Protein backbone atom coordinates (compact mmCIF):
# COMPACT_ATOMS: atom_id res chain seq x y z
CA UNK A 1 0.00 0.00 0.00
CA UNK A 2 2.72 2.38 0.96
CA UNK A 3 4.67 1.82 -2.21
CA UNK A 4 1.49 2.03 -4.24
CA UNK A 5 0.66 5.37 -2.69
CA UNK A 6 4.15 6.63 -3.22
CA UNK A 7 4.09 5.82 -6.90
CA UNK A 8 0.59 7.05 -7.31
CA UNK A 9 1.43 10.43 -5.99
CA UNK A 10 4.79 10.47 -7.65
CA UNK A 11 3.13 10.14 -11.00
CA UNK A 12 1.38 13.39 -10.42
CA UNK A 13 3.90 15.22 -8.46
CA UNK A 14 7.24 15.08 -10.07
CA UNK A 15 6.54 18.02 -12.28
CA UNK A 16 5.18 20.31 -9.67
CA UNK A 17 6.68 19.54 -6.33
CA UNK A 18 3.64 18.25 -4.62
CA UNK A 19 5.89 15.62 -3.22
CA UNK A 20 6.46 18.15 -0.53
CA UNK A 21 2.79 18.49 0.22
CA UNK A 22 2.37 14.77 0.73
CA UNK A 23 5.65 13.54 2.12
CA UNK A 24 7.19 16.35 4.05
CA UNK A 25 10.22 17.97 2.53
CA UNK A 26 11.65 16.15 -0.48
CA UNK A 27 15.05 17.22 0.76
CA UNK A 28 18.52 15.72 0.42
CA UNK A 29 17.94 13.84 3.66
CA UNK A 30 20.67 11.88 5.48
CA UNK A 31 19.00 8.53 4.81
CA UNK A 32 20.96 8.43 1.55
CA UNK A 33 24.74 8.22 1.66
CA UNK A 34 25.18 10.50 -1.35
CA UNK A 35 23.06 12.88 -3.32
CA UNK A 36 23.70 13.92 -6.90
CA UNK A 37 24.14 17.62 -7.64
CA UNK A 38 20.90 19.38 -8.49
CA UNK A 39 19.99 18.48 -12.06
CA UNK A 40 18.78 20.80 -14.80
CA UNK A 41 15.47 22.60 -14.49
CA UNK A 42 12.80 20.59 -16.25
CA UNK A 43 10.40 22.56 -18.40
CA UNK A 44 7.72 22.23 -21.05
CA UNK A 45 9.23 23.91 -24.09
CA UNK A 46 12.02 26.13 -25.31
CA UNK A 47 12.17 28.78 -27.96
CA UNK A 48 15.09 27.22 -29.81
CA UNK A 49 14.33 24.07 -31.77
CA UNK A 50 17.21 22.22 -30.14
CA UNK A 51 16.31 23.27 -26.61
CA UNK A 52 16.55 20.53 -24.01
CA UNK A 53 13.10 21.63 -22.94
CA UNK A 54 11.53 20.31 -26.13
CA UNK A 55 12.49 16.77 -25.15
CA UNK A 56 10.33 14.26 -23.26
CA UNK A 57 10.35 14.65 -19.51
CA UNK A 58 12.56 11.67 -18.76
CA UNK A 59 15.10 12.69 -21.39
CA UNK A 60 15.56 16.02 -19.68
CA UNK A 61 16.99 14.31 -16.61
CA UNK A 62 20.74 13.79 -16.63
CA UNK A 63 21.84 10.22 -17.41
CA UNK A 64 24.47 8.29 -15.51
CA UNK A 65 25.31 8.15 -11.87
CA UNK A 66 25.44 11.91 -11.56
CA UNK A 67 21.86 12.28 -12.72
CA UNK A 68 18.34 11.02 -12.08
CA UNK A 69 17.41 9.43 -15.40
CA UNK A 70 18.66 5.99 -14.44
CA UNK A 71 17.79 6.24 -10.77
CA UNK A 72 15.67 3.36 -9.53
CA UNK A 73 12.69 5.59 -8.80
CA UNK A 74 12.55 7.13 -12.26
CA UNK A 75 13.13 3.79 -13.95
CA UNK A 76 10.16 2.29 -12.13
CA UNK A 77 8.05 5.35 -12.80
CA UNK A 78 8.90 5.24 -16.48
CA UNK A 79 8.30 1.49 -16.78
CA UNK A 80 4.90 1.53 -15.25
CA UNK A 81 3.55 5.00 -15.88
CA UNK A 82 5.84 6.35 -18.56
CA UNK A 83 3.11 6.54 -21.20
CA UNK A 84 0.60 8.08 -18.79
CA UNK A 85 3.19 10.54 -17.59
CA UNK A 86 4.18 11.65 -21.07
CA UNK A 87 0.53 11.97 -22.11
CA UNK A 88 -0.01 14.23 -19.13
CA UNK A 89 3.16 16.15 -19.83
CA UNK A 90 2.39 16.62 -23.53
CA UNK A 91 -1.07 17.82 -22.67
CA UNK A 92 0.38 20.53 -20.45
CA UNK A 93 2.83 21.35 -23.20
CA UNK A 94 -0.01 21.79 -25.67
CA UNK A 95 -2.11 23.91 -23.33
CA UNK A 96 0.67 26.19 -22.16
CA UNK A 97 1.31 29.23 -24.33
CA UNK A 98 4.08 30.78 -22.21
CA UNK A 99 7.53 29.84 -23.41
CA UNK A 100 9.47 30.90 -20.38
CA UNK A 101 9.38 29.07 -17.08
CA UNK A 102 6.32 30.31 -15.25
CA UNK A 103 3.75 29.62 -12.62
CA UNK A 104 6.32 28.33 -10.11
CA UNK A 105 6.03 25.05 -12.01
CA UNK A 106 9.63 24.36 -13.00
CA UNK A 107 11.59 22.04 -10.72
CA UNK A 108 14.97 20.37 -10.58
CA UNK A 109 15.85 17.06 -9.01
CA UNK A 110 18.61 15.39 -7.08
CA UNK A 111 18.80 11.64 -6.61
CA UNK A 112 20.05 9.69 -3.62
CA UNK A 113 22.26 6.59 -3.72
CA UNK A 114 22.88 3.99 -1.02
CA UNK A 115 19.63 4.84 0.74
CA UNK A 116 17.54 3.21 3.46
CA UNK A 117 14.09 3.94 4.85
CA UNK A 118 14.82 3.66 8.56
CA UNK A 119 14.06 6.64 10.71
CA UNK A 120 11.38 9.17 11.44
CA UNK A 121 8.97 9.83 8.60
CA UNK A 122 9.66 13.53 8.79
CA UNK A 123 13.42 13.08 8.76
CA UNK A 124 13.92 10.76 5.83
CA UNK A 125 13.24 11.09 2.15
CA UNK A 126 11.36 7.87 1.37
CA UNK A 127 11.49 8.27 -2.41
CA UNK A 128 15.23 8.91 -2.49
CA UNK A 129 14.46 11.79 -4.82
CA UNK A 130 14.85 15.38 -3.74
CA UNK A 131 13.49 18.28 -5.67
CA UNK A 132 13.31 22.02 -5.45
CA UNK A 133 11.73 24.80 -7.39
CA UNK A 134 14.12 26.31 -9.93
CA UNK A 135 15.71 29.34 -8.38
CA UNK A 136 17.67 30.65 -11.34
CA UNK A 137 14.54 31.70 -13.22
CA UNK A 138 11.89 34.20 -12.24
CA UNK A 139 8.76 32.12 -12.58
CA UNK A 140 6.42 34.19 -10.45
CA UNK A 141 4.21 35.16 -13.36
CA UNK A 142 1.26 32.79 -13.81
CA UNK A 143 1.55 30.66 -16.96
CA UNK A 144 -0.63 31.70 -19.87
CA UNK A 145 -2.66 28.73 -21.05
CA UNK A 146 -5.29 28.11 -23.68
CA UNK A 147 -8.72 29.02 -22.46
CA UNK A 148 -11.11 26.35 -21.36
CA UNK A 149 -14.39 26.65 -19.43
CA UNK A 150 -13.83 27.46 -15.75
CA UNK A 151 -10.09 27.26 -16.46
CA UNK A 152 -10.09 23.72 -15.15
CA UNK A 153 -7.19 22.33 -17.11
CA UNK A 154 -6.59 19.31 -14.96
CA UNK A 155 -7.89 16.65 -14.54
CA UNK A 156 -9.01 16.10 -18.12
CA UNK A 157 -10.91 12.94 -19.00
CA UNK A 158 -9.64 13.02 -22.58
CA UNK A 159 -6.06 12.34 -21.57
CA UNK A 160 -5.31 8.63 -21.62
CA UNK A 161 -3.55 7.44 -18.49
CA UNK A 162 -2.68 3.77 -19.07
CA UNK A 163 -1.85 1.72 -15.96
CA UNK A 164 -3.55 4.31 -13.79
CA UNK A 165 -6.04 2.44 -11.65
CA UNK A 166 -9.42 3.80 -10.67
CA UNK A 167 -8.24 4.53 -7.14
CA UNK A 168 -5.30 6.47 -8.55
CA UNK A 169 -7.70 8.30 -10.83
CA UNK A 170 -9.68 9.24 -7.76
CA UNK A 171 -6.64 10.90 -6.27
CA UNK A 172 -5.84 12.64 -9.54
CA UNK A 173 -9.33 14.06 -9.71
CA UNK A 174 -9.03 15.59 -6.27
CA UNK A 175 -5.56 17.00 -6.44
CA UNK A 176 -5.16 20.74 -6.76
CA UNK A 177 -2.34 20.28 -9.15
CA UNK A 178 -2.87 23.52 -11.07
CA UNK A 179 -4.89 26.53 -10.05
CA UNK A 180 -6.00 28.73 -12.93
CA UNK A 181 -8.03 31.91 -13.27
CA UNK A 182 -9.36 33.54 -16.44
CA UNK A 183 -7.84 36.66 -17.96
CA UNK A 184 -9.62 38.73 -20.58
CA UNK A 185 -7.19 39.87 -23.24
CA UNK A 186 -7.83 41.96 -26.35
CA UNK A 187 -7.40 38.87 -28.52
CA UNK A 188 -9.64 36.70 -26.35
CA UNK A 189 -9.71 34.99 -22.98
CA UNK A 190 -6.86 32.88 -21.64
CA UNK A 191 -6.26 31.01 -18.41
CA UNK A 192 -3.48 31.98 -16.05
CA UNK A 193 -2.13 29.11 -13.98
CA UNK A 194 0.14 28.45 -11.03
CA UNK A 195 1.38 25.12 -9.69
CA UNK A 196 0.62 23.89 -6.21
CA UNK A 197 1.00 25.31 -3.60
CA UNK A 198 0.84 28.65 -5.42
CA UNK A 199 -2.30 30.35 -6.68
CA UNK A 200 -2.62 33.19 -9.19
CA UNK A 201 -3.62 36.65 -8.07
CA UNK A 202 -6.64 37.41 -10.28
CA UNK A 203 -5.52 41.00 -10.90
CA UNK A 204 -1.73 40.93 -11.12
CA UNK A 205 -1.49 37.27 -12.27
CA UNK A 206 1.47 36.70 -10.01
CA UNK A 207 1.70 33.36 -8.25
CA UNK A 208 1.28 33.71 -4.55
CA UNK A 209 1.16 31.58 -1.46
CA UNK A 210 -2.20 32.35 -0.05
CA UNK A 211 -5.62 30.76 0.20
CA UNK A 212 -7.38 30.61 -3.11
CA UNK A 213 -10.04 33.28 -3.61
CA UNK A 214 -13.48 32.02 -4.59
CA UNK A 215 -13.27 31.49 -8.32
CA UNK A 216 -16.94 32.25 -8.94
CA UNK A 217 -16.23 35.92 -8.39
CA UNK A 218 -14.02 35.94 -11.46
CA UNK A 219 -15.53 33.20 -13.56
C1 LIG B 1 1.93 -0.98 -17.71
O1 LIG B 1 2.72 -1.59 -16.71
C2 LIG B 1 3.39 -2.78 -17.14
C3 LIG B 1 4.08 -3.37 -15.92
O2 LIG B 1 5.02 -2.52 -15.37
C4 LIG B 1 4.35 -2.45 -18.25
O3 LIG B 1 5.02 -3.59 -18.70
C5 LIG B 1 3.59 -1.81 -19.40
O4 LIG B 1 4.48 -1.39 -20.41
C6 LIG B 1 2.80 -0.61 -18.90
N1 LIG B 1 1.97 -0.08 -19.98
C7 LIG B 1 2.05 1.19 -20.37
C8 LIG B 1 1.16 1.57 -21.51
O5 LIG B 1 2.77 2.01 -19.85
Description:
By secondary structure, the protein is an alpha+beta fold. Strands 1-2-3 form a three-stranded antiparallel beta sheet, with no helix packed on it. Helices cover 24% and strands 19% of the residues. It has helices spanning 2-13, 19-23, 57-60, 72-95, 166-173; strands at 32-35, 107-115, 129-133, 143-145, 178-185, 188-195, 199-200, 207-208. It contains five helices and eight strands; from the N terminus they run H-H-E-H-H-E-E-E-H-E-E-E-E. Residues 79-80, 82-83, 162-163 line the site of 2-acetamido-2-deoxy-beta-D-glucopyranose. 2-acetamido-2-deoxy-beta-D-glucopyranose (NAG) binds next to helix 4. Keywords: Signal. InterPro entries: T19C3.2-like. Residues 1-17 form the signal peptide.
Distance between the termini: 39 Å
Reading the helices and strands in chain order gives HHEHHEEEHEEEE
Our estimate of the beta-strand percent is: 15-25%
Which residues form runs of ≥5 with pLDDT under 50? 1-8, 12-24, 214-219
Heterogens: 2-acetamido-2-deoxy-beta-D-glucopyranose
Q: Count the beta strands.
A: 8
DSSP summary: helix tally:
5
Strand order of the largest sheet: 1-2-3
Quickly give the structural class: alpha+beta
Evaluate the radius of gyration: 17 Å
What percent of the residues sit in helical stretches (DSSP H or I)?
Answer: 10-25%
Sum up the overall morphology in one term: globular
The major pleated sheet works out as: 3 strands, antiparallel
- How confident is the prediction overall: mean pLDDT? 82
Amino acid sequence: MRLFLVFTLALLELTDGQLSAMFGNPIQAPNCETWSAWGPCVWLKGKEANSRWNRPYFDQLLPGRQGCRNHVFFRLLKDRWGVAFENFYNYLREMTMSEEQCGQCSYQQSCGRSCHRRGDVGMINPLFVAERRCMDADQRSACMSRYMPDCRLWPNKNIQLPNVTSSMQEIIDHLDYLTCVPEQRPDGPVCRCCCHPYTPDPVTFECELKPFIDQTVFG
